[in-house]
Amino acid sequence: MNDATLILGAIAAMIASGAIGSIETALSGISRARVEELHREEKPGAAQLLTVIDRRADHINLLVLLRTALEATAAVFVALLAVTFITDRKLAATVAVAAITFVSYAVVGVLSRTIGRKNPYTVSLNSAQVLSVLAFLLGPISKILIFVGNTLAPGEGLKAGPFASEVELREMVDIAQEHGVVEVGERRMIQSVFDLGTTTARSVMVPRPEMVWIESVATAGDATRLCVRSGLSRLPVIGETVDDIVGVVYLKDLVQKTYSSTDSGSSVQVTDVMRPAYFVPDSKNLDDLLREMQVKRCHLAMLVDEYGGIAGLLSIEDILEEIVGEIADEYDSAERAPVEHLGQRSYRVLARLSLEDLHDLIVEEYGVDLVFDDEVENEVETVAGLISYEEGRVPLPGSTVSIAGLTLTAEGGKDRRGRNKIATVKVDVEDALFDTPAEV
């Protein structure tokens, strides 16, 4: 291979690498909604681009592979040229590294990405056809290499590859908020949408002890009165035990049965009005569960634990509250807010507030991370659970523990069954929180 071929090869490889870098950046920054609009406007390439977006992660993985291969090829050509013209090998290596670093950073890292970021739809539309052909020819190679990388990586690898993950989108949202493009509340909402895919139904459900239910032997009138007293519009109907859920009764159905009844629904059994219950495992993630509930037009799901018992229940409202925050209606006036600010460094939180939400509260207020050891993070999910973990027993009202720079005091009293129950936890921030983080 002569010198001219090496020079032309290095230049061609860097130009191609820059073009691929531009396409990669553009493809990461376009929205499906906008591409669908372009397709309706019959823009050339829009139909093909829709197909590309449907498998965006696969195409970005392929682009990363091609860019890496081209940059490596250019580096080899430049190294061969340096050795040819410079007799001192150390100097030749230095010149080759400096040259390829400069060109790679300027052409691929800055120029190409700037073009892709400024003109994402133009670049994507013009490259969609070529990208589809490349994906057909080289896509299997990219998947094999990702499989090999995931096999070598510690822990569980990323099935779609690490190059097109939601981490980049999260970072973009954070940057947008820092520059005032996105408000703080909007950023939280967007981040919450991302979290739906990793949040389990168990973590946001109404736990079994807090469920309001009605027995199958009750009448429609009984169920109507219970709905009015509790402020709920849907009630699980149980058979012999709480684990024996036979259906769900809706207030709307009850009203239709009892409104014109002369005996206020006493002659109608609740089993005659109820609808089939919808059962799902409590380990199901909220993203999939929300989609299923929308398809089935079901507003209430009964969660089943690994032993087949009823773990709790979850409504669509509970899932939406994970995105937009607490939703209070006219019947929720007696409900406590998840977090109540009592004064300087003092808060009252719901006993079942998650550790993740507690961590977010401390970070937002003080800019300090709560640090727990792995056992706590694996075993404990709620603030009340943290007290129980530290004490080694079921906590009672008045129990106090200090952990991770916080003092937690259990608050509560007798429930409707006469049992001691922790309803809220008083959280006091200690000076130790602001020292070097200490693991517990």
Describe this structure in words.
The protein is an alpha+beta fold and 440 residues long. The protein is built from 15 helices and 12 strands. The protein folds into 3 domains: 3-164, no CATH class; 201-324, CBS-domain; 339-434, Uridine Diphospho-n-acetylenolpyruvylglucosamine Reductase, domain 3 (2-Layer Sandwich). The protein has helices at residues 3-28, 32-40, 46-54, 56-85, 89-118, 120-152, 166-178, 184-195, 220-230, 251-258, 286-296, 316-324, 355-366, 374-379, 383-391, and strands spanning 206-207, 214-215, 234-238, 245-250, 279-281, 300-304, 310-315, 339-343, 346-350, 400-403, 406-414, 420-429. The N and C termini lie far apart (63 Å). It is a multi-pass membrane protein.
List keywords for this structure.
single chain, Transptr-assoc_dom, four-stranded mixed beta sheet, membrane, 440 residues, repeat
Tell me the structural class: alpha+beta
The succession of helices and strands, N to C, reads: HHHHHHHHEEHEEHEHEEHEEHHHEEE
Helix content: 40-55%
What percentage of the residues does DSSP assign to strands (E)? 5-15%
In the sheet with the most strands, the strands line up as 8-9-12-11-10
Coarse shape: elongated
Low-confidence stretches: 436-440
Rg over CA atoms, rounded to whole Å, is 30 Å
* Domain module tally: 3
Largest sheet: 5 strands, antiparallel
Helical region count? 15
Main location: membrane
Pfam families: CBS, CNNM
Organism: Corynebacterium choanae
Domain CBS: 205-264, 273-330
